[in-house]
Amino acid sequence: MGMFDSINISASALTAEKTRIDIISKNMANVNTTRATGGMPYRRQMAVYQENKSTPFSSYLEKQGKKFNGKGVVISEIVEDATPFKLVYEPGHPDADEDGYVKLPNVEIVKEMVDMIDAQRAYEANITAMNSTKSMLMKALDIGRR
After folding, report:
1. How far apart are CA 14 and CA 124, in angstroms?
2. From residue 145, how far is each of 132, 133, 134, 138 by CA, in Å?
């Protein structure tokens, strides 16, 4: 494991968590959007995390050297939640069907808030890990000066 690998791993997690926070913010902003692209209500989006795979040749070299081969995390895709839309009876609404029901997005604001807190905590934890690594590297440099 190289000297800066742990910083790179934390940096990849920070990037992924920032994207997750952006997606959650988008979900919360569209909680009342009854007509999105395609004329349907907005669908909740979620990030899918995946291990950051290294190239086949470098992973072969790392296996031969029995080195740690963690490369961090990436968001492989952003998927839509298949949960059904909420139906609300509002006959005067422009998007109401013939029975007077309006389809609302499948976004639950409480669930989004919990996800937002979770993403913020993960972001903070990765900043703490990065700062700890930086502190250890600085201590190592101080030892080298003496």
Report:
1. 9
2. 20, 19, 17, 11
Structure-token pair, residue 120 = 């913020």
pTM: 0.82
Q: What is the DSSP string of the chain?
A: --TTHHHHHHHHHHHHHHHHHHHHHHHHHTTT----GGGSPP--EEEEEEE-PPPHHHHHHHHHTT------EEEEEEEE--PPPEEEE-TTSTT--TTSEEEE-S--HHHHHHHHHHHHHHHHHHHHHHHHHHHHHHHHHHHHH-
d(CA 121, CA 135) in angstroms, rounded, equals 21
Q: How far is CA 115 from CA 47, 110, 129, in A?
A: 11, 9, 21
Place of tokens 């920070």: 14
Dump pLDDT digits (tens) for 118-142.
999 999 999 999 999 999 988 988 8
- Give the whole-angstrom CA distance, residue 60 versus residue 47: 29
Please, are residues 12 and 71 in contact by the beta-carbon 8 Å criterion?
Answer: yes
